[in-house]
Amino acid sequence: MSSPVLEPVAGGGTVAAAATAARRGFFARRRSREWLFIALLLAPALLIYLAYRVVPLLWNVVLSFSYWAPGKAIAFAGLTHYEEMLFQDETFWVALKNTGLFMLATPLSIALALGLALLVDQKVVGKGLYRSIIFLPYPMMVVAVGIVWRWLYNDRGGLVNYALQSMGLISRPIAFLESTQFALAAVMVAAVWQMLGLFVVILLTGLQNIPSHLYEAARIDGALAIHRFWRITLPLLRPSLFLCVILGIIASFTSFDLIYSMTGGGPGRATELLVTYIYKQAFTLTRFDYAAAMTAVMFALFLAIALLANRLSGGDAGKVDIAE
Amino acid sequence: MKTRSKLLVHAALITVSLIMLTPIYWVLKTSLTGENLFTYPPSILPVDPNLYYYVEAWYSVSFLRLFFNSVVVALIVVAANLVLNAMAGYALTKQFPGKPLVLGFLLASMMIPFHATIIPAYLLTSQLGLLDSKLGIALPALSHIVCIFLFKSNFEAVPASLIHAARIDGLSEWQILTRILLPLSKPAVATNVILSFIWSWNEFLWPLLVVRSPGQQTMPLGLVAFLASFEDTTGALYAFCVLVVLPGLLVFLLAQRDFIRGLTSGAAKG
Lengths: 324, 270
Description:
The complex is a heterodimer.
Chain A: H1 15-64, E1 66-67, E2 75-76, H2 80-88, H3 90-103, H4 105-121, H5 127-135, H6 142-153, H7 159-166, H8 183-208, H9 212-220, H10 225-236, H11 238-254, H12 256-262, H13 274-284, H14 288-312
Antiparallel strand pairs in A: 1-2
Helix pairs in contact in A: 1-14, 3-11, 3-13, 4-8, 4-11, 5-8, 6-8, 6-12, 8-11, 11-14, 13-14
Chain B: H1 2-33, H2 52-60, H3 63-91, H4 99-110, H5 118-127, H6 134-138, H7 145-156, H8 160-168, H9 173-184, H10 186-202, H11 205-210, H12 219-230, H13 235-254, H14 256-268
């Protein structure tokens, strides 16, 4: 890169002009060096996201329109995989339905978490302890959580059956995870048990960020507690609620570990989610191309639902960006 | 009246806490007594607790190897996250052309769940020749975007005058990052270490895809293999569960505040 400092100053410039030019050159060089430095700082992280997020997403789309298996040449398949998925593969629809049902756990657990967060947010003794206990399941390894819940649901001495029987709610033990009727709900309970604390903690942070003078003003105006909740708490909690919704939706699309360790997708297809079905198609049947088409659909659904949730939460939820 | 409503709040919170703790208590109890398929009704309190099943778990799997593998992967992940996220976070505190593009790229990447990329990610790792290696297990987790933004906001909170003074004193940009900003951002460092450790420690799906040989298995893979070969017929399975869960719980209990701050930074507009 040629340095402008050494260039002759055009038009018989004065010393001052030369000095300005020199300074400009100095700053330009310094700035381009700084930009290089910034680029170097950013490069490794960006490279990882490029290689393991963005490129795979595009690659996945390409794969979904192709015939391809490891070691074979790639060929254009058009919409074949999508047609198979939508019109011939019944299991895809079952997995889609189950994923939708799994998503229903999100509003329920957010409502529950909101109730708990409001309780913990009171000036009660030991609120830190309550918060920690409710959050405790979250950092646990999901596979281990699944194994623990298998044992709780066991029909020969499992705690859940024992408790229900002693309360007189059921007369004979139920093999929850082996029943097509209960298996999915049983897994969802385990998922809620693990996620609840995260929601509580997020909502608590949101609650604590609401300026207290708003409540005081409302109280002076004579607003009832219920009105304060609807008019102040809920609207101002929107970004936190949106974050919970997104995390819940992500969980329903990614709860692979729990299904794998609790039911393996069974009995039959009763707990098959999109993510577990994709895994089976890709990595046990080596149908990477077909699984890629399902992945593309799964991602499109995820984006659509996330955008919808954003819209429903008032559109300003985008402001939650931690980049702000 | 006021004390009564407070009592109600406590009653509700205690009930929920008990429900949350029950599964944890139950697995602990089972791991200590092995009371399993053979006793009905189950006893609520542990009868004759002993460590037999922990010994059995220790000897039925090559526990140390699993532990070692998990630790090595976690070390790679934690170290890389610290370096890469701090670097990227520092870069984002500066003005440069294309910054909105970079921010957009990061936020968009954040909306891509890793599970939606596993097939090409697997093929890519295979192309790189990193299948069945610890680096291959660690690679996709070498940087977490949440932590980049955490560093960014922590760095931005450092007074500009301090950085200016350091610059006048002749510190290079790199030295400003390592000697001024990082020591002043201990909370971000702690959060970064804790989150990347726990995420790496608990990761299951990716190692399941990448690992081929038993020699490279991490803890969760060992646990699932154990489940597959013994079913739930032995207390050792639950002893194994307790051992596997312990590091994550310990880290959380020791550094709760940093942990929770990291997870809620999105809600708090960090």
